[in-house]
Amino acid sequence: MLPIHLDKVSKTYLTAPDTEPTISVDLTIQAGEFFTLLGPSGCGKSTMLRMVAGFVAPTTGSIRFGDRDVTNLPPHKRGVGMVFQNYALFPHMSVADNVAYGLKVRRVARGDRAARVDAALSMVGLQSMADRRIDQLSGGQQQRVALARAVVIEPALLLLDEPLSNLDAKLREETRMQIREVQKKAETTAVYVTHDQAEAMAMSDRIAVLADGKAHQIDTPRRIYREPATSFVARFIGRSNVLPVTVVEAGSESATVSLGGGTIAVPRSPHMAVSNGAPAELAVRPEAIRLSSEVEAQLGGVVTQVEYMGATVTVDIDVDGTHVVVSAPDRTPVPDQGARVGLAVDERNTWLIPA
Description:
Elements: E1 4-11, E2 23-29, E3 34-38, H1 45-53, E4 60-65, E5 68-69, E6 80-83, H2 95-105, H3 110-123, H4 139-151, E7 157-161, H5 169-186, E8 189-194, H6 197-203, E9 206-211, E10 214-219, H7 221-226, H8 231-236, E11 241-250, E12 254-259, E13 262-267, E14 279-284, E15 289-292, E16 299-308, E17 312-319, E18 322-329, E19 340-345, E20 350-354
Parallel strand pairs: 3-8, 3-9, 6-7, 7-8
Antiparallel strand pairs: 1-2, 1-4, 4-5, 9-10, 11-12, 11-14, 12-13, 14-20, 15-19, 16-17, 16-19, 17-18
């Protein structure tokens, strides 16, 4: 297992002097880590993965696997295994031959090759299908063949480019934990690309949330959800209300802000620069807002929509032109559409972010 260092790496596809880079990052992925690149289409996550793989050359910066500089090495000399979005399997070969292909290219002896293919297929639960053709497999089984082919070469680094995007929702949920289990068994560092927040949150040790060619936040799933660094992260990860506030008094780890007709004390990052009187935003998850009487509430608004979700009820509320979402337990009395309600914010479960 090796750490990966991307030192001031960027990629710019146009040559005009004022062209903004497609992606620009500076980060370290720890040895053995399952690290996810998460973001919307066009944010640069696949470009970043392909630079690590060696398919795309960076415009600036360097890439190191441990102490080895691989910036100018071709893909086949980097020792990486890659799972593509479309799996890229050979339809005329059997499952076993597909898995063995990388070993043949590396001139691994036939006996050792057979043992390693058998171990890789066992790892993904496909030993009994070794002799089947690829077109006899389901989409989920083909994905597992692609995973076995990537890990059988015993790579120091496993790269996965949206490998679940062609599967249905139920199969994605079943497969994502299997990918994580295989990565642990293979004892390799993994870099995973997805635009699916649920996948990233469930699978990752850490996540880089990318947008506009840069990393907005690199952190654990829990901290990204509870302590978003920017308005984009707050809105992109799960559902979140981002409310405009004004800082009344700034402390070292918290701040008092004006909200509605009163003030509340809320937690903030000590690294965030704030000053008294400055505008800011408050990230409030739907479950951190409670429907209440207007007397005890910080905010008041009109119900615009109610959705029954089973265990919870989602209530959309218009607060003076700002859209606020509340997630309440099913047992909570549900207001009618058009009703005026009060909203009490749990300040312990909010987070102050820059405006």
